[in-house]
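Q: What residues go here?
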């Protein structure tokens, strides 16, 4: 007999000791089923091998099955309950992978297809309708797809960070060392300070503590970078830093502010013959942390800025901006990419807006 979703809640004889019955006269089972489905998604956040045992137990409860087996392409990974005597779970799964859905008396098995590719198998024994099993398999496949996307986003963000570290400009390193060398005789005290700043900058840029840092740490690295640039510009570079104290402990992705400042210096101010100014400001805006980096450099066409963020601009320009934009979107979602306000001859403002608190974003 086929069952509807509202009939999938287990019979009283199969409830665990801690399970809760639907309460109230005639209360439908829809809410408990939806709760179990949501918790199933949490079980599978790290894939079948990470949360398979808990997921198998929850699926058995959802289907009111005598037993449930979850398998990936290497074979069974989790089970709850006992399959009919003499059932070889591994052989059963192999048959499903070869022939597709398998139906036997008191036993049904369906493939798990994730992103149009075979990824595993769901087996259930007992009086379980094939339609119900197929629906649950589809739900599992959606959760596994989301888990794969989360993993991919994490890997992309980590790869982008490694790329950014590898792209620390040789041009800047050469200029910084040349400036320090030029001050050794004329102003040895400042040369020592600049050398310390240079060492601090490199130490922070190549730090392996984690993927996130506090706004305070990012600000310190940015100020160190700007001091080195100010010496190179013979103090023609003016710097303004205003940061609200309440956002200093906020965790943000590592190396987010400094690459934007470097882009402002290299592509906004180096082409100016007169003095240049960069301001870095930060403040809280409700649940958001807002950081703005503004320069009075040569600016750019708005269409050119859009091309840079889209990754279709010249490879030699705006690499840091595109990298930071991609990492912000990977961590916080597509609505939290960079905002750029610019025009030819009118300078550039880059705005970062990210949540002040987000699960998993913690500075180490």
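A:
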């Amino acid at each position: 007999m086929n069952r509807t979703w509202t009939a999938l809640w287990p019979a009283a004889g199969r409830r665990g000791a801690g399970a809760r019955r639907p309460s109230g006269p005639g209360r439908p089972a829809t809410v408990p089923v939806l709760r179990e489905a949501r918790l199933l998604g949490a079980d599978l956040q790290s894939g079948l091998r990470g949360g398979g045992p808990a997921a198998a137990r929850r699926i058995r409860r959802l289907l009111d099955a005598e037993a449930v087996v979850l398998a990936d392409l290497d074979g069974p990974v989790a089970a709850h309950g006992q399959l009919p005597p003499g059932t070889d779970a591994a052989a059963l799964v192999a048959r499903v992978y070869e022939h597709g859905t398998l139906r036997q008396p008191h036993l049904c098995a369906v493939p798990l297809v994730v992103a149009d590719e075979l990824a595993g198998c769901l087996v259930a024994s007992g009086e379980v309708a094939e339609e119900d099993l197929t629906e649950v398999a589809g739900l599992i496949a959606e959760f596994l797809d989301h888990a794969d996307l989360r993993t991919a986003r994490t890997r992309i963000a980590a790869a982008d960070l490694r790329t950014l570290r590898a792209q620390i400009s040789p041009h800047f390193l050469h200029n910084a060392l040349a400036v320090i060398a030029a001050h050794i005789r004329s102003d040895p005290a400042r040369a020592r300070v600049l050398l310390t700043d240079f060492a601090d900058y490199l130490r922070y840029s190549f730090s392996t503590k984690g993927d996130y840092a506090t706004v305070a740490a990012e600000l310190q690295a940015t100020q160190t970078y700007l001091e080195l640039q100010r010496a190179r510009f013979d103090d023609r570079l003016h710097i303004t830093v205003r940061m609200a104290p309440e956002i200093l402990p906020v965790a943000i992705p590592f190396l987010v502010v400094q690459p934007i400042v470097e882009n402002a210096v290299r592509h906004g101010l180096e082409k100016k013959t007169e003095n240049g100014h960069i301001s870095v400001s930060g403040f809280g805006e409700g649940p958001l942390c807002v950081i703005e980096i503004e320069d009075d450099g040569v600016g750019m066409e708005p269409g050119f800025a859009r091309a840079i963020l889209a990754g279709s601009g010249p490879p030699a320009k705006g690499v840091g901006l595109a990298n930071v934009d991609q990492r912000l979107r990977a961590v916080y979602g597509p609505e939290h990419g960079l905002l750029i306000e610019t025009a030819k001859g009118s300078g550039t403002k880059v705005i970062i807006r990210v949540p002040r608190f987000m699960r998993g974003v913690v500075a180490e």
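A: Context that may help when evaluating the design: The longest strand covers residues 276-285. The CA atoms of residues 160 and 323 lie 6 Å apart.
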